[in-house]
Each structure stands twice: as C-alpha cells, then as structure tokens.
Design a protein that fits this description.
Elements lengths: L8 E10 L6 H32 L14 E7 L15 E7 L9 H13 L3 E2 L13 E2 L1 E5 L1 H9 L3 E16 L2 H6 L4 H4 L8 E14 L5 E4 L4 E4 L2 E3 L6 E3 L3 E4 L7 H9 L12 H5 L8 H12 L3
Helix pairs in contact: 1-8, 2-3
C-alpha cells in the first residue's frame, strides 16, 4: 500500500486578534482556520484542473496523480494584552483582525504601538518567501491584510481618518467594485460572470459601526465607499537610493473569514457601542444568511501572495 503523499508547505500566516478575549474568540479562530484552508483547497483544485488540461493535450503516457492541497500554517498573536507581534520575515502574510477599540489610537497606547508595527512590518524585506524551501535572489516584502477594524487601523497608521457611523452595518453586503477592483479580482467568479445588468461586485459579511472617512495616501480603492484598498506606500530599499511603491497591503471593511456560525455568535453578543436597537434585530438577522464570496476572496488573497 502506497504511503500518503506529504502535505506540501502552505502559506505562513500570522493573525493578530485585536480585541480582548470574548465569547466569540474561539469561533473567530475557527472561522479563520476553516475559510483559509478552504481557499487552499480551492487553489489546489484549480491547479490540478489546469495541469489535467495540459496533460490531456500532450502525448505523455505517464499517469498523473493529484497532489494533496497545501496546508496553511497559521499562528495567532495578541497585540492587546500580551502585546506579542510576529516577526514579518517569518510570514508570507500578516492579518489584522476585527476589533472594538477606536482604531485612531487616541487613547490606547497598544493601538499606537500596532500602528508603528504596521508601518515597520510592511517595509520589511527578506531574501526569500517564508514558505519557500530555499533562499532566493528575489526580495520578499511581507504582505499585510486588514479586515474590518484592521482595515481601519491600517488607514489610520498611514495618515487616513476613521469616524463613527450613524448606524451599524451588519450582515451580507454587496460592495460594487471600482475599475481597479475589477482588475484585481478578475479571476473571481463574481467578476467573470458579470453582465451588463449586473455590475461587478462582491458579497461579503459586514459587522462595524465605524468607517473610513479619509483614505490614507498611496492606496488605490478596489471598491466603492472605502470598502477595500490596495497599497503600501513608499518603502526604501537599502541597496537603492530611490523610493518605490509596493502593493503589499490589502484591506477590506468586510469579513471574508466570517461564516454563519461566527456572525450569529457575534450578533448574539453585539456590544453596546454598535447601537443595535431591539426593534431592528429581526431585520438584521435576515441578512446574516445567504451566499457570499468569503472563500473566493481568500482564494484571491492566496494568489496575491505569490505575485510580486
């Protein structure tokens, strides 16, 4: 009996949980783990189908085998209480999760420390990707993903502004894409199946009471209403006197990691600052279910990790 194929190395991902422990902390971790691994599986299936099509058009008589999907290596960090941060050189992606504190950091030293980490981490350069098996002559710049509060904290770290909304936004939301967004998400089914009567857009879970009011300079809007950005600002390389713009920061106001179990747990423990009235809960609950593009967005994120 043949031995099972070993799992190939997957992306190394560090996730900063930007809130104190709560009833939904474990559900949050589980949601990240399941959605990212589902995206790894999706990428593996796409590559297998592509290889199968190539083999069917060749004259090779060898039998191809389906390799197992890579397994993402995911570590969680606590920047709030323990104030632990990952080493950017050891990870392909650093994720800033949702949170509840004011992301501008006016009264919270740990938020200002996180802003400094964001700026330093996204300027870190190493000689190879952490998930690569050997050093490379190419230069690897750590990539960062901001989700909800993380999206807003990245904006604040680079000079943008965030303010409170009149009403919370909760549930699956359609976000129209900009031309830059259509280009970035071009491989996603939600974009490739667009018709003239259905403009390009993504469906994503939302759960927030603050929003970006002034984007940080150097970031391109991928969706309308400040819902998604791609950027990175100017970074300086030691062996070059010029400053270059690196698109190594991606962010979403929504939650691509969120599943129905997590959103229902969070909605059951909605914090007072969200301002959700009892009379509105039934209508909001109806928006918690339905199809969304969470795993497809993660699949695109993993593709982006392999891009320069």
């Amino acid at each position: 009996m043949a031995s099972p194929l070993p799992l190939p190395p997957g992306p190394r991902i560090a996730i900063l949980l930007n809130s104190s422990p709560s009833p939904h902390t474990q559900s949050t971790k589980a949601s990240f783990l399941s959605s990212i691994q589902a995206a790894c599986n999706s990428n593996s299936n796409s590559n297998s189908n592509s290889n199968s099509n190539s083999n069917s058009n060749s004259n090779s008589n060898s039998n191809s085998t389906n390799s197992p999907p890579p397994r993402a290596q995911i570590d969680f960090f606590d920047p709030v209480i323990a104030q632990r941060y990952p080493d950017p050189a050891l990870y392909d992606l650093i994720v800033l999760s949702g949170g509840t504190t004011d992301p501008m950091g006016t009264d919270e030293p740990w938020v200002r420390a996180l802003h400094a980490f964001v700026r330093a981490a996204t300027a870190t350069v190493s000689t190879a990707s952490p998930s690569s098996s050997s050093p490379s002559s190419s230069r690897h710049r750590c990539k960062m993903l901001g989700i909800c509060w993380g999206h807003q904290a990245i904006c604040a770290a680079f000079g943008g502004e965030v303010a409170a909304m009149e009403e919370a936004e909760i549930g699956i939301t359609t976000i129209p894409l900009t031309l830059a967004g259509v280009h970035f998400f071009h491989s996603m089914p939600a974009v490739t199946t667009t018709t003239s009567t259905s403009p390009p857009s993504l469906k994503i879970h939302e759960y927030h009471r603050r929003r970006i009011t002034r984007p940080a300079p150097g970031f391109a809007a991928l969706a309308q209403d400040h819902q998604s950005f791609l950027g990175g600002g100017a970074a300086h390389d030691d062996d070059d006197d010029d400053h270059h713009h690196h698109h190594n920061i991606l962010s979403f106001q929504g939650h691509p990691e969120m599943n129905e179990d997590l959103i229902r747990t969070m909605f059951a423990h909605v914090p007072p600052y969200m301002g959700v009235a009892e009379r509105d809960k039934e209508a909001i609950a109806a928006r918690l279910e339905g199809p969304h593009d969470g795993v497809a967005i993660w699949t695109r994120i993993l593709e982006w990790l392999r891009e320069d």
